[in-house]
């Protein structure tokens, strides 16, 4: 049997994150004390699970009750905050093979997004994440990932949006 706690737990869990059940590269893995060690939880394997660093950081020293709540709130679809799945599967096939559709439509979309952001005054999205969801929500019929990415790209390349450490600044 592997001797390090993390190795042991990973072995027991079949190399998957305890929470999201995604393959867990060792670089992303960490040991989560279910009953936090700061609250007197033991270091025994029975109190520990291997999981994504992100969710470990999130759970931190929450009480067991709070942790249960976090887990139950996911309704069985638990995804760690920065789930490793995307990096694993998405990279090669991220860009659709199709050539981008008519440039005019793209520019129209861009103008529409800029106009919408302008209208928001002081309540513009502050983080890249909310900006992304905001733009996506402007297109209830759906916006492909490539289109969304290209709009974000265009916002930045035209200097209308500056992203620094996930914080977004505007000069519209
Ligand atoms: Zn995970």
UniProtKB/TrEMBL annotation:
Alphabetical list of Pfam families matching this protein: HNH_5 (PF14279)
Keywords assigned by UniProt, alphabetized: Endonuclease, Hydrolase, Nuclease
Residue ranges occupied by any HNH nuclease domain in the UniProt entry: 5-57
Keyword Transmembrane helix: no
GO molecular function: endonuclease activity
Residue span of region Disordered: 83-102
Residue ranges, compositional bias (Low complexity): 83-93
Domain of life: Bacteria
The name this protein goes by in its record: HNH endonuclease
